[in-house]
Design goal:
five-stranded parallel beta sheet, 22 strands, disordered N terminus, globular, alpha/beta, 25 helices
């Protein structure tokens, strides 16, 4: 139980708060500055100046939108690259291969070193990258061992708080919590048998305690520690150990340190800390998790009430320990773009009153990192081309980050002053919700009828042995066939041509000519390199999901709705608002043209239904499985047209299959049923001689190996280079018996792997699985890389395949 008095907590964040905000800039200023630094066009000072200006502008923006500038309601959640990497830098906890990057005196990382850990150098591979819970954000996986240096090595968080304070805003520093940091880490290669990163909890907590004391010394009233590990039971950590770690960590950080006062900065701050807000986003904290945090001496707890439910409390409704804490009700969706039904959200807040919290505050369910900046940045109306404007109907249905801050402020006023004080806002919210429900295109009877008529036969293909024999006869490929995942580098010339066409400055004929010229160049390059199965390189595609959204009914795309995916990589997720159908073929022209240029097999390239949903802002008024089947049917029609055009291989990418896996194991079976089903619906209409490929990346695949097998693809390519083929033995142990292409070239780093490195990885693959099943390919598409990196890397890939092929 809490050791502090149980008198009601003072109301923290009375005007509401958010758990984080987009950090890339409204026009991707941070992305551009970081990439300029990487290219050597600017130096670290230039980058820091840009970043500082962006941080100050964000703080001012949030206060202008209604957050209190004086009490820590404004989160200070900046990162140059990744919030988990920030903790690695905070602790100096870099892998052994990067230890030389640490400062000899204080163990800190300069910006060059920080980015090197993220991107790699020479033969030193970067940190592995995977999905951040159930989002399309990717974090870097720390590598921890018994000897990893861990201390309070980096004072950036303290400096950024002081910077904001000097600019007139009292921010709330935000960090990944110590338990989640270690629970998401992996044991480094040098770690002993049985070691788990949580074995270093005491060291990490000691460093966090130093940080809290340093923040108290400069007057920070609050700090936010994010502990989303508490909303999942899918981590490789028993619940009992995770809960014990939370209790231990916050006993040290909240109980053993004394909460500071307004005069903290002028006092002896040894043992003094800011007030602590612990957040549990992305799912339901549950009664056990809430009780666990309530029993500590933290000062506020934020719970996700969009994906999570209102906790039940105890028999009398109250939760022991909450009486001296603020409960932050995460009722505004930080993960999707739909305008909130404010009256319904207030009902959820009201339901929390019986839990016995000392105070209630309104907040977002998650950080707003996962949504674009501002609806007002979009243009509504008729545009020159697809993607330049949004349908005017959508204006009142949407809430991006800035609008969500406004929703938080409105709900906070209602909690403070009553619903009558915000009657106009509540009425406008209700009208928008009603308008969306009845708009044309939200329900299309023909789409619903086609989905309702599906039978089991629509989800099944013939026996794999029969398919494999027919495909081998048709394709006549060598052992260890080489290919790429689909995209090739998008050059400045390609981007300029697409931008000019989008704005109506380039005719359809000229645009098509430019794309065909690029396809021809890519085909010649692949033939010169000696690849066995070719792709067209996707020059016409701005993004693997947005491109399809632009050609399917029921979707809208934005002009400025940028969201960070990883590092400096930003995407514009489409908005799926209505029933989905394909009005016309999408990719057939490009694939057929490519096939006309070569005698080698060509892959038709599609994005799968689950990934299209995962990387879009999806509708919340229809079960996701139903929407997945609508997308699956649209893709089924596209595949039929590709097959009719003579394309013998069709790849349907599903890199997000693992991403949408529910965080609670009890919910996963139903998800896997409909997600696998939608893929099979898309791909089960083809002839036995047509080879179906799929691709998966950015994921820990162990939990979905059964689903990978259930997709029933003829060939599955997976990201494997950074993890050094970890997935291949798992597939072999699971009895996987179809084609497998474990990636041998990590495309998320600019480094070019040597032929020897690729050969070593390929040897690991053929040692673990039947070589007759193995394909040779990169980890992912090559769109974000440059040709000076890609050409030698692919040459090494082909050379490695030939060397290993000769030994079979």
């Amino acid at each position: 139980m809490s050791t502090t008095p149980t008198s009601p907590a003072p109301a923290a964040f009375p005007g509401g708060t958010i758990l984080g905000y987009p950090r890339i800039g409204r026009r991707r200023e941070l992305k551009k500055a970081v990439e300029s630094f990487w290219a050597g066009r600017t130096d670290a000072v230039d980058l820091e100046v840009t970043a500082g200006a962006l941080r100050r502008e964000t703080a001012r923006r949030l206060t202008s939108l209604g957050l209190n500038p004086d009490d820590g309601s404004v989160p200070g959640a900046f990162s140059y690259y990744d919030q988990v990497l920030d903790v690695v830098a905070l602790l100096g906890a870099v892998p052994e291969r990067f230890r030389d990057l640490l400062d000899d005196e204080d163990g800190s990382l300069e910006l060059d070193g920080y980015f090197t850990v993220a991107r790699g150098r020479g033969e030193d591979a970067p940190l592995e990258m995977t999905k951040w819970f159930d989002t399309n954000y990717h974090y870097l996986v720390p590598e921890i061992s018994e000897t990893t240096p861990i201390s309070f090595a980096d004072h950036r968080v303290v400096r950024e708080y002081a910077e904001a304070k000097e600019a007139g805003v009292t921010t709330r520093p935000v960090l990944v919590g110590p338990v989640t940091f270690l629970a998401l880490s992996k044991a480094a290669d040098e770690a002993g048998d049985g070691f788990h990163p949580l074995d270093r909890l005491a060291d990490v907590v000691a460093a966090y305690a130093e940080l809290l004391r340093a923040l108290a010394a400069v007057g920070a009233p609050w700090v936010q520690l994010d502990e989303p590990a508490l909303v999942t039971d899918s981590l490789d950590v028993p619940a009992e150990r995770l809960h014990a770690a939370v209790a231990s960590a916050y006993r040290a950080l909240a109980t053993d340190l004394t909460k500071g006062t307004d005069d903290t900065a002028s006092e002896d701050t040894v043992g003094v800390r800011p007030a602590i807000l612990v957040t549990a986003p992305f799912g339901s904290l549950g009664d056990d998790g809430l009780a666990l945090l309530a029993a500590t001496d933290v000062d506020a707890i934020a719970i996700d009430l969009v994906k999570g439910a209102v906790p039940a409390g105890t028999l009398d409704g109250t939760v022991p320990g909450l009486a001296d804490k603020t409960l932050v009700a995460g009722v505004v969706d930080g993960h999707n773009v739909w305008r909130a039904d404010l009256a319904a959200r207030l009902d959820v807040v009201d339901a929390l009153r019986d839990l016995g919290a000392g105070a209630l505050a309104v907040g977002t369910s998650t950080s707003l990192l996962h949504v674009p900046h501002d609806v007002e940045d979009e243009v509504f109306g008729d545009g020159a081309r697809t993607g330049t404007t949004l349908d005017p109907r959508l204006r009142d249905w949407l809430a991006f980050a800035d609008q969500k801050v406004g929703e938080v402020a409105t709900l906070a006023r209602a909690v403070d002053l009553g619903r009558d004080a915000v009657a106009d806002e509540l009425a406008a919210s209700s009208a928008a919700v009603a308008s969306r429900a009845t708009a044309a295109g939200v329900v299309v009877p023909a789409v619903r009828d086609r989905a309702a008529a599906l039978t089991d036969a629509d989800f099944a293909r013939g026996p794999y042995a029969e398919r494999a024999a027919a495909q081998a006869a048709r394709l006549n490929l060598p052992p260890l066939p080489t290919t790429t995942i689909g995209s090739f580098p998008q050059t400045p010339e390609i981007r300029k041509a697409r931008a000019a066409w989008t704005q109506g400055e380039l005719s359809d004929a000229d645009y098509s000519g430019a794309m065909r010229e690029e396809i021809g160049r890519v085909v010649r390059l692949q033939e010169d390199l000696g690849l066995d199965v070719l792709v067209h390189g996707e020059p016409e595609r701005n993004d693997m999901v947005q491109y399809f959204a632009e050609h399917l009914d029921g979707f809208a795309v934005t002009a400025n709705g940028w969201v960070q995916s990883y590092g400096s990589r930003c995407v514009r997720p489409p908005i799926l608002w209505g029933d989905v159908q394909r009005p016309a073929p999408i990719t057939v022209e490009w694939s057929a043209y490519t096939a006309s240029l070569t005698q080698k097999p060509v892959k038709g390239m599609l994005t799968g239904p689950v990934t299209i949903l995962a990387w879009s802002f999806v509708r919340d008024d229809l079960p996701l499985g139903d929407t997945a089947n609508q997308v699956g049917l649209a893709l089924r029609d596209e595949i039929a047209d590709l097959e009719a055009a003579g394309i013998g291989i069709v790849q349907v990418d599903e890199p997000a299959l693992r991403e949408l896996l529910p965080l609670r194991r009890a919910d996963q079976e139903e998800y896997l049923r409909w997600s696998v089903g939608s893929f099979r619906l898309a791909t089960s209409g083809v002839d036995v001689a047509t080879q179906v490929h799929t691709h998966l990346c950015y994921s820990e695949f162990g939990e979905v190996i059964g689903a990978i097998d259930g997709l029933d693809a003829d060939v599955t390519s997976v990201e494997a280079a950074r993890s050094r083929m970890e997935i291949v033995p798992e597939l072999a142990d699971a009895g996987y018996s179809r084609g497998i292409g474990p990636g041998v070239y990590d495309i998320h780093s600019p480094r070019v792997p040597s032929s020897e490195e690729v050969t070593e990885l390929l040897r690991l693959a053929v040692k673990a699985i039947d070589p007759a099943l193995v394909w040779v390919n990169p980890d992912c598409g090559l769109k974000t890389r440059r040709y000076p990196e890609v050409e030698p890397a692919l040459a090494h890939l082909v050379a490695a395949a030939r060397e290993v092929r000769a030994t079979l």
